[in-house]
Design goal:
Blueprint (H helix, E strand, L loop, with lengths): L17 H7 L7 H6 L44 H25 L7 H11 L2 H18 L3 H28 L5 H12 L4 H10 L5 H30 L4 H30 L1 H22 L9 H18 L5
Helix pairs in contact: 3-10, 5-6, 5-8, 5-9, 6-10, 8-11, 9-10, 9-11, 9-12, 10-11
């Protein structure tokens, strides 16, 4: 007996959802990212305005001074939707865990000089609270920004910042042999140590900013544009120059994450700046204001360097060069 099974190709009537097809056309299959982003945010038929801000709709373009003809132009070049984001971070974390396991199994912490170990506790532990502030700021952006493209990417970024706070916590616990009092000391330094008060004030002032794009510029562009290059990258180089390679190994996760995240940040700024001269002028004004804040805040924090002012100026110049390439006028 011979059995022939014929294959039949059934042409779908349409390749994607209606809201995406209206943008891309019926005949073009959409990626998962496009289906998750385009026009997913409700735009009509709301029951009531928010009672706490009755001058705005629930989703309202007027919450920011930045004007966009289409807020869905602000797509994430990494094309993160839930599945791609989770799988990417899981793979990165698995590689990161190998560094922790290697250092722990080889007992490399025991070879770190006590004075250098104390510097790690002094300069790194309080950043847990900076990262938590960054998490709250990005959740505010999620709450107030218009369009699924920005809202979704900011939500992933908010979760990243919570992860960074946890990552720093893991570093401190590994280096201190699980001494939780080091975390308490870091909190006390964040609250009371004079060298941290400039940054703490900047973060706490940012928590009341209501314009979501103003907050995006402040936290993700300028604040991070100083903190991560100086307090993570440069401090790791300082430790390496003093023959301590454990911290650079443990902090590489943060460095590589920031390089990846910068692709999204730069893309958003570039698209906004190209939208109009008004946007470019406003974004440039905001960046200049925040750079001035961070220059003052970092003066006391970069005391691990022999030339703190030179290091801050170099970081500032690199940030300005990066943002000018994105279309700003700094």
């Amino acid at each position: 007996m011979e059995l022939n099974i014929a294959s039949v190709e059934i042409e779908p009537k349409r390749h994607t959802f209606g809201n995406v097809a209206r943008r891309l056309g019926e005949d073009r299959p959409a990626s998962r990212y496009e289906e998750a982003m385009y026009d997913a945010q409700p735009t009509e038929n709301f029951h009531y305005r928010p009672q706490w801000e009755p001058e705005f709709e629930i989703y309202d373009k007027k919450r920011t001074k930045i004007k966009m003809n289409d807020w869905y132009d602000l797509l994430d070049p990494r094309k993160f939707h839930y599945m791609s984001y989770v799988s990417t971070r899981a793979n990165q974390n698995a590689a990161n865990e190998q560094s922790f396991d290697f250092i722990d199994k080889r007992g490399l912490v025991d070879f770190i000089k006590k004075e250098n170990l104390q510097k790690v506790f002094d300069f790194l532990t309080p950043l847990r609270h900076y990262e938590y502030g960054a998490n709250m700021n990005n959740l505010t952006i999620v709450d107030r920004v218009y369009g699924t493209a920005m809202m979704s990417a900011s939500m992933f970024h908010a979760e990243d910042r919570l992860g960074m706070a946890q990552h720093i916590t893991k570093i401190i616990l590994l280096l201190s042999n699980n001494d939780v009092t080091k975390l308490d000391e870091g909190k006390e330094a964040w609250l009371d140590d004079s060298k941290w008060q400039g940054l703490r004030k900047a973060v706490e002032d940012s928590l009341v900013e209501k314009d979501p794009i103003r907050l995006f510029v402040k936290q993700n562009i300028v604040f991070d544009g100083f903190i991560i290059p100086l307090m993570i990258n440069e401090f790791s180089k300082y430790m390496a120059n003093h023959e301590e390679m454990v911290l650079p190994m443990l902090s590489e996760f943060i460095t590589s994450w920031y390089e990846e995240t910068a692709k999204w940040l730069n893309s958003v700024i570039k698209v906004m700046a190209l939208e109009s001269d008004e946007n470019k002028e406003l974004l440039s004004k905001w960046v200049k204001e925040d750079i001035e804040i961070m220059e003052k805040a970092m003066e006391s924090l970069v005391s691990f360097s022999n030339n703190p002012k030179e290091l801050i100026d170099l970081t500032k110049a690199e940030l300005i060069e990066r943002l000018n390439k994105c279309g700003l006028n700094l």
